[in-house]
Amino acid sequence: AQTVTQSQPEMSVQEAETVTLSCTYDTSESDYYLFWYKQPPSRQMILVIRQEAYKQQNATENRFSVNFQKAAKSFSLKISDSQLGDAAMYFCVNGGSQGNLIFGKGTKLSVKP
Amino acid sequence: KAGVTQTPRYLIKTRGQQVTLSCSPISGHRSVSWYQQTPGQGLQFLFEYFSETQRNKGNFPGRFSGRQFSNSRSEMNVSTLELGDSALYLCASSGGLVGGTDTQYFGPGTRLTVL
Fold it and tell me: Quick check: B95 contacting A, CB < 8 Å?
């Protein structure tokens, strides 16, 4: 069975600083994708970044980047130059061949001014 | 392009009633997935529809059902509501590539409260 584990229920970062959110996953599939979604207080789920498992290069999207360690089944998200608008619940997500997304429990990120 | 829309945004029902939620995907998207989000269980996959056919199903009782229309709009129905069905129901659409490798875009959700 596919599982996604986020070991940090809550994290805090100072505005303009850098923060890294951790995620580990388990899957028996060889072809899969990984995603980070954010859910602000409005509850709208927003895609932050995605990583194809077959690609060795880590995905980046402006201030967001990932550290994908396939052998270790680790997929962390780094947010640089944190902004107040980054405050949200962040979900690490595994998408496999069955058509569904497996979500972690989430990490609540607070940004201090 | 307009995003995923869900109606209604809020619903209050009583135990034993049934409810229907609606989801309109992004134009051109053929796959619609439904998820239930609760504080205790987190986000759980309900089912996915593609070209009017249920392509994948999560581990939920038969009281939860869905369908998809020819224009890709989808409805989700919950019969004989229980208190535990209170949740945020999220709909997501994607282009429809086989499997969970396609990026899914989410709607704002429907908040269902069962009294």
Answer: no
Single-letter code of the amino acid located at B114: V
What are phi and psi for residue A44, nearest 5 degrees?
Answer: -75, 120
Query: Beta partners for A78?
Result: A20, A65
Q: Give A111→chain B minimum CA distance, Å.
A: 22
DSSP B38-99: ETTTEEEEEEEEETTEEEEE-S--TTEEEEE-TTS-EEEEE-S--GGG-EEEEEEEE---SS
Query: Given CB atoms, is B101 within the 8 Å cutoff of chain A?
Result: yes
Indicate yes or no: CB of A43 within 8 angstroms of CB of B108.
yes
Report the amino acid identity of residue B54.
Answer: Q
Instruction: For the sheet with B64-68, list strands across it.
Output: B5-7, B19-24, B74-78, B64-68
Over residues B18-52, the pLDDT tens digits come to 999 999 999 989 999 999 999 999 999 999 999 99
Which residues from chain B sit within 8 angstroms of residue A44, using beta carbons? Answer: 106, 108-109
